[in-house]
Design a protein that fits this description.
alpha+beta; 4 strands; globular; binds inosine-5'-diphosphate; binds magnesium ion
């Protein structure tokens, strides 16, 4: 099934929100295929945020993403990329709809709780960027028949 890459940003660790954010994904029915803590550096961030390197806020974004270790997750599920982006909400937490992670937990455009892959193709690239092959696990959730209809979980 489809995979997507989530980063719980440093502010999320500082503010004690890790459990609540992970809980939302599990309650939704997404499967955790990989999860670990890591310290990001300039190299991986310049690659990950390549579309933003020329923006004036990029140095601040780099510093923010290196402020503490982060938690990276690979979530798996049907249409996982689209589902997680909808749960994430708009980039600026102040504009994000209530009920979304950013809408419920944040007040900032930069300190916006999580990163989530924005396309199926980027999901594949980003999972490979942050996880070695042997850190992504293939297993069945016993609740899968109660989570999906038979035609949805192929
Ligand atoms: P996304 O995280 O919603 O996909 P992107 O445009 O890919 O948004 O930006 C990546 C990250 O860069 C954002 O999550 C946010 O932390 C930061 N960022 C984006 N735009 C701004 C801005 O205008 N000011 C400060 N930080 C920003
Ligand atoms: Mg993005």
């Amino acid at each position: 099934m489809e995979k997507t890459l989530i980063i719980l940003k440093p502010g999320t660790l500082q503010r004690g929100l890790v459990g609540q954010v992970v809980d939302r994904f599990q309650r939704k029915g997404l499967k955790i295929a990989g999860i670990k803590m890591m310290q990001l550096d300039d190299n991986i961030l310049r690659e990950h945020y390549a579309h933003l390197v020329d923006r004036p806020f990029f140095p601040t974004l780099l510093a923010s993403m290196k402020a503490t270790p982060v938690i990276v997750m690979c979530l798996e599920g049907k249409d996982a990329v689209e589902v997680v982006r909808a749960m994430t909400g708009a980039t600026n937490c102040r504009k994000a709809a209530p009920g979304t992670i950013r809408g419920d937990f944040g007040m900032s455009g930069q300190e916006n709780i999580i990163h989530a892959s924005d396309s199926v193709e980027n999901g594949q690239i980003e999972v490979k960027r942050f996880f070695a092959d042997n850190e992504i696990f293939s297993y069945s959730l016993l609740v899968q028949p109660a989570t999906y209809g038979p035609d949805e979980c192929l």
